[in-house]
Amino acid sequence: MGDNMEYVALTGLSERVITELKQNRLLTIEIKSPHNFLAAMNLNVGDFIFLTRTSSDDITGGTTGIVARLLKHQIITQRVMQSGEMYYEEREMTTLRLQLDPRCIARVRKVLSNKIGEISKVDAEEIPLYNAQ
User: Fold this and answer.
1) What integer pLDDT is reported at residue 1 of this predicted model?
2) According to the model, what pLDDT value does residue 4 have?
3) For each successive 10 residues of the chain (133 residues), what is the average pLDDT?
4) Which residue from 76, 81, 108, 123 puts its CA 20 to 30 A from 65's CA?
């Protein structure tokens, strides 16, 4: 990893996810939010991504997060059947399952894109551990 790099950003993640990644744990997360789904859809195994609990609207230079390497990428579609006396309905729900290997804490230098309907991308730099809170 270079000093600063471009990353696809997954935003608005839970405190628990970020905490577990900070503790250097391999972690599998499920992505359901449309914004993150769009961003994660075209990732490839081996890609480095930036993950933060900050929502995409609020990301600015200085936002911190975790850079992780993508180990597994799975699209899962579940069918849910519902029926009543008068109807029969089939619903599908698709989620993305990502297995992440955390690498470092990083800080956004510049937001490259985060409009609705766009993939969030940031230019971020690694924070040496002694600088991280």
Assistant:
1) 46
2) 67
3) 79 95 93 91 95 94 96 91 78 91 96 88 87 52
4) 76
CATH 3.40.50.300 describes domain 4-127: no
**DSSP string of the chain, one letter each residue:** --SEEEEEEE-S--HHHHHHHHTT--EEEEE-SHHHHHHHHT--TT-EEEE-SS-GGG--TT-EEEEEEEEEEEEEEEEEEEE-SS-EEEEEEEEEEEEEEEEEEEEEEEEEE--TTS--EEEEEEPPGGG--
Q: Residues 44, 116, 112, CA angle at the centre, nearest 5°?
A: 60
- Domains of the chain by residue range: 4-127
